[in-house]
Amino acid sequence: MTVSEQVGSETETTPPTTGPLGVPPPAAPGDSASAPVVSLPLAGRAPQRRPTPWALARRSPLGAGAALFLLGLLAVAVVGPLLGVGDPLATSPLAMFAPPRPGLPLGGDYLGRDVLARLVEGLRVSFALAAASALLAATIGILLGLVAGYSGGGADEAVMRLTDLLFAFPTLLLALLIAMVTGPGIPGVLITIVVATVPVFARVARGPTLSVRATEYALAARVAGAAPPRIVLRHVLPNITSPLLVQLAFTLSGALVAESGLSFLGLGVQPPMPSLGSLLRDGRTYMELAPWMMLVPGLTLAATILAINLLGDELQGLLDPRLRQR
Question: Helix crossing, 186-213 with 171-182: angle to 10°?
């Protein structure tokens, strides 16, 4: 056999070392020596663990302190009447303008009612009104913002012009107009706060919706034939919750301020039911004679609003990656 024939036979019998795309062929069973080692790239990073509440508290001690303070106030408002703080409507001639003492930890008012019992009941009423109005405004505003941001066109234009119209009314003027229709009381407070804060949530929800609508996964779901409500609920809404939660925290503080202001002016909670605003109104007249009547509710309201705003700021820093990197 010549050299050329020997080379040709070896070429015919030698198996190729690579496949059609340059990938080594699979090794024969049991042939571990010739099996190539292929390193496959990882499909993605390992899922990150969610931080524990203790880790969040260490990262933001100011926010943790504000949250604990608010939880304590909420617990007092809910559990306080069950602990025997007294009847907020019971009067006693012997307790009229009584200073703080063992039987009356926060003193008595001009009718001899326990200021502590009225403060606990006022916290319950004010928190309930603020939470109900903020959640209702958030629900309506987020729905309008999602419709405007995802649909676009005429729906977007109509929602934005509606928000511009609502922004044009001052809150106090709006409260006066609503009070003329419904009369002073809790319904007027709810309607006023909801109407004043719905456009804020609509604009906060619309902006991120416009961005998420143009993402690849939203477009893929649309091409796959998913209905718009399904895309909005499963792909858009979960990705815009961070700014909405921060806005909800600030809306709660604003609702407390609005309820207190309306009740202070006589347009909100009516006597004898107490609220933080009505307690301030009652204590204003007798501030020189019984300063604790106005001092205690005023400090409680100021501390509550400060704690909610601090919590909102810390939430914004924790949920916004751009602020978290600073």
Answer: 130
Positive/negative CA dihedral, 111, 115, 121, 123? positive
pTM of the model: 0.78
Give the helix ranges, DSSP H, for 214-291.
216-223, 228-231, 241-264, 276-285
3-state secondary structure of 268: coil
CATH assignment at residue 274: 1.10.3720.10
Token duo for residue 276 = 């933080």
- The total domain count for the chain is 1
User: What are the pLDDT digits (tens) for 109-132?
Assistant: 999 999 999 999 999 999 999 999
Structural domain includes residue 32: no
- Alpha-carbon torsion, ordered 247, 252, 72, 81, to 10 deg: -150
Q: Which amino acid is at 297?
A: P
- The C-alpha atoms of residue 138 and residue 72 are separated, in whole angstroms, by 25
Q: What share of the chain is helix, strand, coil (3-state, %, to 5)?
A: 70, 0, 30
What are residue 108's DSSP bridge partners? 114
Instruction: Please list, in sequence order, all residues whose beta carbon lies within 8 angstroms of the beta carbon of residue 245, skipping any fewer than 6 positions away.
Output: 315, 319
Strand partners, 114: 108
Range of the domain at 247: 107-324
Q: What is the DSSP letter of 215?
A: S
CA distances 272 to 6, 91, 111, Å, are: 113, 11, 11
Per-residue pLDDT reduced to its tens digit, 67-100: 999 999 999 988 887 777 888 999 999 999 999 9
